[in-house]
Amino acid sequence: MYRHLKGISCLPVVFFALSYLYASPAESARILGYFATPSKSHIIVHCALADALAHAGHDVTVIASGPNVRQQAQYRYIELEKMGAHPLMSTDMVNKRQPFWRRFGSLLVSIARSANETQQNMRVQEFLQQHGAGDIDLLLFGYFMNDFQLGLAGHFRCPIVLSFMIQPIYAVNRYVGNPSEPAYVPGIFGYLVQPMSFLGRVKNMIVALIEEHVVQPMLEYQTRKFYE
Ligand SMILES: *[C@@H]1O[C@H](CO)[C@@H](O)[C@H](O)[C@H]1NC(C)=O
């Protein structure tokens, strides 16, 4: 009888010992979602991703160019005061009478201006001063031709993941050494889908050349301004 009771009293100890040995440890990362883009529709996609990570148990903080688009989200949101109007709404973007390169040029200017405005924001500057190496485990970066801000991963000395709404563009492929393979991978500017016909491939090849030799230098021109 006594032996029987003794067996019961040590059950919790056995239980805890076994759960310590067999339960898989849960790991939670400190993630910063940084979405400096003038496009609200992009922010909606990035914030959904950040929220899913927060739901999965990660410690997620979000900085974005505008008000929080997911009020019920589980991430921490750093609300920026005094953000300008979304310049993508400006008419020169939809003004089809202008040639593509001019519209694209003003798009790049808008993107760079908005990204810079977000980064210069007082609350973002405060956050960057208070958080450095070792404070963030992963930077979830909303990419939209705001290449100069990729350096934020260097500030936090952490890995970076790019969130983008479409397939990688030439600039991103180049960073990671990914060949663009225009012979069978439709580029973003050609509006083609797989499988491509022979003429489709020819068109895709031409568009890929334009992306490499016209779009990329334009992007680099805008990016370089932030290093001067
Ligand atoms: C970025 O913003 C700061 C502060 O508003 C400004 O001084 C700087 O010239 C801007 N950089 C570029 C390249 O426009």
Automatic annotation (TrEMBL):
Any one GO molecular-function label of the UniProt entry: UDP-glycosyltransferase activity
Pfam entry (one): UDPGT
Keywords tagged on the record: Glycosyltransferase, Signal, Transferase
Ranges in coiled-coil conformation: none
Signal peptide start and end residues: 1-28
Presence of the UniProt keyword Transferase in the record: yes
Taxonomic superkingdom: Eukaryota
Claim: Glycosyltransferase is one of the keywords in the record: yes
Family note: Belongs to the UDP-glycosyltransferase family.
This protein's name: UDP-glucuronosyltransferase 2B31
Organism: Ceratitis capitata
Gene responsible for this protein: UDB31
